Amino acid sequence: MELKPYGLLPLEIRHHTDMLSTIALFSSARRQGNTGQLMERIASELGIEIVDLAGLRMSCYDYHHGNRDDDFEPLMRRVLACDQIIFATPIYWYAVSPAMKVFLDRISDYLDIPELLAEGRRLRGKNAYVVCTSVCDEPSPEFMGAFLETFRYLGMYFGGVVHVNCESGFLPEVHDSAATAFARMVRDAALVTTSLGAAASTDLQVPL
Questions:
Q1: Mean pLDDT throughout 48-70?
Q2: Residue 82 is assigned to a structural domain of this protein
Q3: Is the dihedral of CA 161, 166, 167, 171 positive or negative?
Q4: Domains contained in the chain, number
Q5: Confidence of residue 198 (pLDDT cuts 50, 70, 90)
Q6: Phi and psi at residue 95, in whole multiples of 5°?
Q7: In CATH, what number is assigned to the domain containing residue 49?
């Protein structure tokens, strides 16, 4: 089991009493597989929505943006309304699952399409988390590196990752403690509001 809370960008933290809203984006070949069961346990602790990306009509990134009538932009409106985003996926060949990759690629729409640029900037300062499973003891550096670089590029704060080894399947009696510890970490982070400092904004490669 791997549970790591660590920051990626400099932060200015102000305590307040309101809970930040959280949404989970889930993608897997099996809805009730290992990652699905882990995410369900976490969601039950947090009382949050899980969006199954595989159930949406969301096509691959199109340089000409001819797919704006699919489900991606409505989903992004829901995502942007939240303060915290959990990305849940099994590790497939050192990478995310296909529907998660499509979602991450489509964020480029909010960097390319003029009328979406202002909305894309709203990703800055949001808390991002990763939930993943594999048959190894730790998530691969290649898998985590893709998420870390994506969060850095978008100006998001990386709050932590929970990973469990499911070589023998998801075992509640073994993995429940990891799920509840992660949920507690997300809940505790939701008691603070974060904003990027000047040093963080200069770390972006291009303006969003």
A1: 95
A2: yes
A3: positive
A4: 1
A5: very low
A6: -145, 175
A7: 3.40.50.360
